[in-house]
From TrEMBL:
Keyword flag Metal-binding: no
Entry keyword annotation includes Transcription: yes
GO molecular function: DNA binding; DNA-binding transcription factor activity
Record-linked InterPro entries: Carb_Metab_HTH_regulators, DeoR-like_C, DeoR_HTH, NagB/RpiA_transferase-like, WH-like_DNA-bd_sf, WH_DNA-bd_sf
Pfam families: DeoRC, HTH_DeoR
Annotated ranges, domain HTH deoR-type: 3-58
UniProt keyword terms in alphabetical order: DNA-binding, Repressor, Transcription, Transcription regulation
Function summary: Repressor of the lactose catabolism operon. Galactose-6-phosphate is the inducer.
Protein name as catalogued: Lactose phosphotransferase system repressor
SMART domains hit by this protein: DeoRC, HTH_DEOR
C-alpha cells in the first residue's frame, strides 16, 4: 500500500471514529508503530489531524476554500523557487497556458521584460499583470469568474480550450496523490483544468509539498497525463517515488 493511500485510510478512519490510536492502526495496517507515527505527522502537517498522546484526532476540514490572496501568502519563497524551476521548461517564443493558481501566478513575476511568449490564461489577476507587456501576445479565457480564485470557469472557458493546442500548460492543483491523481474542490474549476490538460502538448504541474496526499472531491487528471511535477524538497522520498511510479517526471526546487 502506498504511503498516501495508507494516510487516506487513516484519515477516513479518524473522521469515522473521531480518533485513531497508533497501536491499533499499526496492527490493522500491518506496519510498524513508527510508520504510523510518520503518517500521522504528515497528516498533521497538512492540517488534516491533530496529534494527541497515543494517536490523533481529525481536524474539521469543512471550511471555506482559501482565497487566492491567502494562498499567495502561504509559502511564498517555496512557490517562487517552484516558479523559477518551471521557467527553465518554457520554450522560447512558445505558447503557454497558465492556470489560475497561486504557484502559477508566481511565474508571472519571474518573466523577463523581453519575454516573447503567447500566453493564454483564465486568471483575471494574471491577465491584468500581463496586459501591456510589449513582447507578449495575451489571450484571456472568458466565463464566470469565481470570487474565491479569480478564475474564469464554465462552458465559455472550456469551449475556447477545445479549439487550441498549446506548447506547455502550467497547472496548479489542490491535491495530488499517486492513487487519485490531481484533484480540486470545485467542479467548474475541475472541468476547466481538465480542458487545459487536454489542450497541451506538455503538462507541468506546479504544487508545493503540502498538497501531496490530499484528495479533493473532483479529479481533473491522472498522473499518467502529466509530463512534469515541480514541487519542493520537503516532500518525503517515499512520496516522491510513488508519484514518479505513477508516470510523470518529478523534480524538487
Amino acid at each position: 500500500m502506498y504511503a498516501t493511500e495508507r494516510q487516506q485510510r487513516i484519515l477516513a478512519q479518524a473522521r469515522d471514529d473521531g480518533r485513531v490510536e497508533v497501536a491499533a492502526l499499526a496492527e490493522d495496517l500491518s506496519v510498524t508503530p513508527e510508520t504510523i507515527r510518520r503518517d500521522l505527522t504528515a497528516l498533521e502537517q497538512r492540517g488534516s489531524v491533530r496529534r494527541v498522546h497515543g494517536g490523533a484526532i481529525p481536524v474539521e476540514r469543512l471550511v471555506a476554500e482559501p482565497t487566492l490572496a491567502s494562498r499567495s501568502a502561504h509559502l511564498p519563497d517555496v512557490k517562487r523557487r517552484i516558479a523559477a524551476r518551471i521557467m527553465d521548461e518554457l520554450p522560447a517564443g512558445g505558447t503557454i497556458l497558465l492556470d489560475a493558481g497561486s504557484t502559477t501566478h508566481a511565474l508571472i513575476d519571474l518573466l523577463p521584460d523581453d519575454a516573447t511568449f503567447t500566453i493564454l490564461t483564465n486568471s483575471i489577476p494574471a491577465a491584468a499583470a500581463l496586459a501591456g507587456r510589449p513582447g507578449l501576445t495575451l489571450y484571456v479565457l472568458g466565463g464566470r469568474v469565481r470570487g474565491v480564485t479569480a478564475a474564469a470557469v464554465g462552458d465559455w472557458a472550456s469551449a475556447a480550450l477545445k479549439g487550441v493546442v498549446v506548447d506547455v500548460a502550467v497547472i496548479g492543483t489542490n491535491g495530488i496523490s499517486a492513487a487519485r491523481g490531481l484533484t480540486t474542490p470545485d467542479q467548474a474549476e475541475a472541468e476547466v483544468k481538465r480542458a487545459m490538460v487536454t489542450s497541451a502538448r506538455r503538462v507541468i504541474v506546479a504544487t508545493d509539498s503540502t498538497k501531496a496526499g490530499d484528495d479533493h472531491l473532483h479529479r481533473f487528471a491522472s498522473l499518467a497525463e502529466v509530463d512534469l511535477v515541480v514541487t519542493d524538497a520537503d516532500l518525503s522520498e517515499d512520496v516522491l517515488d510513488e508519484l514518479r511510479e505513477a508516470g510523470p517526471e518529478v523534480v524538487t526546487a
